[in-house]
């Protein structure tokens, strides 16, 4: 069917029912511009219309939560007068089409979400998911995405301190590029994206407006890739929708906006992301309960002949909308001139008007000239917050029972030496391309359990605290059991923070799922949200923000459910680095936490990397056992936090058991140090590769003292062996030289990418 | 108190870190906007890392035309200590205040990693407090950090002892393993590694202190020289 | 009047060209045999207001040498062209 034959509203992505709803809201037929505004604002990406009813089930409250979900970023009180803002987003479809610019503009967008709250962005993390690197297109995607993050993030001046790298065939035609950003501010600088004060000015800051990204959110993020080859066959047709990033413009925009906020010149401020000016103006007006007049002729354009709908919905990057009093215009104008940032008055705040029932309604009016012809006039809140919500059909996948029954426990053991070597990947080739150190805060950088940063930055009050960040996901678990898989992913994140001594304080999530019109995908999404709610309730964690990325499919194949969990933790005193992974000869090596998983399998292998590598994608996922986890996490966090506080300790190394299992954790530590270990007693091969969380590898220089503290905390430990020698010996299963382990791990990624060493 | 000016171009991003490094050694660090034309009163000038003017065209190519660079040239001519770190080094080379140029890294990727440097001359405002042959662990953080120059320049650098720091293991393809060079008088120095990122063992290394210590105390020497 | 000028900036002989040599090494794997001497450079397109082509070329050459290229490592050449 050709698009020309479709009615306009369907071409804009609106259903017939949605058109009816627009007619009801307006009490008349919408004109073409108005339809276009609703088309982008009611797209899945902007409105969360398929997910919102489920997201309500997440816990969002905590005494330290200053701003919860729904704003540009979540904000917590980190103590010492410092607030930390955090946000996670996806830039999946743009990156599938143009990996460099897709990833680069993803970084730019998340930074604006954070500094729009008044926070200076201090750290970025990038969870990335690609198909198998044997495919040349995957290699092109990886190199492009990493170069885009590096090119934008380094230049704009925000360190990239961590992330994740996952390869699985389900992402071959639909890679996932998620990005998390955390920033900090003095508590009193916290600002919200609210318009208020009739007569106040709406000022557009930053880049000129071009045709880049017209309809980007609705075209790209709210529909799947139709062809079997995903993005490949659609490249040329969709490339104009991909925005181009300018980190230099963004850097000046950050400095100008923070200077405006410091100077108290701004009433409200909002970044321009998906859906551009219409989104920023309608959201700020709706939050403030006011109306706004926007003059399309005032907006600086990059190319001639742009239509009002293009100007209003353009996703040109590096733009912000500030609401200011007319009196502050000279100061705003001067500060922007200093930073060479364009500032243009494009509209003003107007009083709400009574509707037919006498209720006051803030109207967004698009005009040609500030007092000129009205081109569109719609209730701002109807665009911003009142898209129809859908409770889409959900269905448990028909093959799930068969999939779970196919447990890999019957898989032949084979060579654990080969299995282990094949599982090891050192992501250093990726993170060496990121500036991970700017601002002199990075105590633990990329490639470890979690990033750990001093809580310091320009303009912040002095603090001895640190913040920790981690991102985690386990799509293999979530495909088998999205509820338990998501709960365990949260647990994995808390475990990672424990390794650097941080207590978890807040969660953000990026829910990457397939097509919500497939009932199985909606079931997965709903289950995953329940699992996250369960884990967050059990561990006392508020969800302060999130992003839902749907339609991650191609040719009718949905990706495995991929909820990415971002965690923010706080270390109260950070004056010394945490123990890290490095071993010292002679130290005792101890497994901390329950040796066996709760539930029927002592060492479940369903969804493990080991099983996946063997082509076994089925099986049982370990259950989430909050009681066991809480005690172990508290104990490990306390042990590491003492080291960070500068207290003398016998704890010399800490690493959590996660992807790759116990064998993977031991191999990573051995490779990092160049020293081996011999472990004589293991309860079978599955203990090496099972990935259930809540276990830590710890080395101690005083086994007796450590054992006593563990017993006092009610936490189980097992003395597995002692550090020393140059071989990694794991019972009868693994016997490898440490240098071979290190070499294979170090070269795995560059070899797969077919790069020169 | 020693006053250090830290030049800020639009696009600089290591200005806070450089100022913090100087301040930790007791200096008073002040930001100098790139439009400034008067550097009187400063005991030393740091051009920090970052992406001045977006690094568009070539790193440092546009920054060299910022008004402050004429003042920096006069300050250097009068014997004032000038330090270019990373992007600042690139700016000094583009300005002709230091010889040579910085090209893209051999591997054509950005590199952020620890490197081991060897002090190969102590006759400069950056290395006077270090000892010859001393090894320092200091991170690099750049895309265009491969030092290059023609044969005659390299010969002159070597003969006049102007290579102040070399990489122990060359990470980026720099000619002759060069990590930092000084001008003839030793008062203008540029290096690609970031000594201000190596000020504390909490962050991995404190080996940068000896370099910045040399720099912030060098004004005494240079004032004597000028007088 | 405006004259359309293209400025090419290339590395001077003897200056390492990692971009060019990386491309050259990649070509055989892509099925392009027998391609050698690959060099990377930059190209700038300018409209130069000048009374005649010679004056336009002179102006473009001057700005190419002063700003568009780094004479320590690069050569710049300017030529009059036709927009097409």
Question: Can you walk through the features of this model?
Answer:
Chain A has about 750 residues and is α+β, with helices and mostly antiparallel strands. Chain A is built from 27 helices and 30 strands. Chain A has a seven-stranded mixed beta sheet with strand order 8-10-7-11-9-14-15. In chain A, helix 24 (about 660-675) packs across helix 27. Chain B has six helices and eleven strands. Chain B has helices spanning about 15-25, 70-75, 85-95, 150-160, 210-215, 220-225, and strands at about 5-10, 30-35, 45, 80-85, 100-105, 110-120, 135-140, 145-150, 165, 180, 190. In chain B, the strands form two sheets. In chain B, strands 2-1-3-4-11-10-9-6-7 form a nine-stranded mixed beta sheet, sandwiched between helices. The radius of gyration of chain B is 16 Å and the shape is globular. Chain C has about 80 residues and is an alpha+beta fold. Chain C has one domain (about 1-80): Mth169, Chain: A. Helix content of chain C is about 30%, strand content about 30%. Chain C is built from two helices and three strands, in the order βαβαβ. In chain C, strands 2-1-3 form a three-stranded antiparallel beta sheet, with helices on one face. Chain C is elongated, with a radius of gyration of 16 Å. The relative contact order of chain C is 0.33. The chains are: A alpha+beta (about 750), B alpha/beta (about 230), C alpha+beta (about 80). The interface of A and B includes residues 247, 248, 252, 255 and 457 of A.
How helix-rich are the residues of chain C, as a percent range?
25-40%
- CATH-assigned homologous superfamily of chain B: Class I glutamine amidotransferase (GATase) domain
Average of per-residue pLDDT values of chain B: 95
CATH architecture of chain C: 2-Layer Sandwich
Any idea what the CATH architecture of chain B is?
A: 3-Layer(aba) Sandwich
CATH class of chain C: Alpha Beta
User: What is the helix fraction of residues of chain B, given as a range?
Assistant: 10-25%
Low-confidence stretches of chain B: 221-227
Computed CA radius of gyration of chain B, to the nearest angstrom: 16 Å
Strand content of chain B: 25-35%
Strand order of the largest sheet of chain C: 2-1-3
Total strand segments of chain C: 3
Low-confidence stretches of chain C: none
| CATH class value of chain B | Alpha Beta
CA(first)-CA(last) distance of chain C: 18 Å
Distance between the termini of chain B: 20 Å
Work out the radius of gyration of chain C: 16 Å
Q: Could you tell me the number of beta strands of chain B?
A: 11
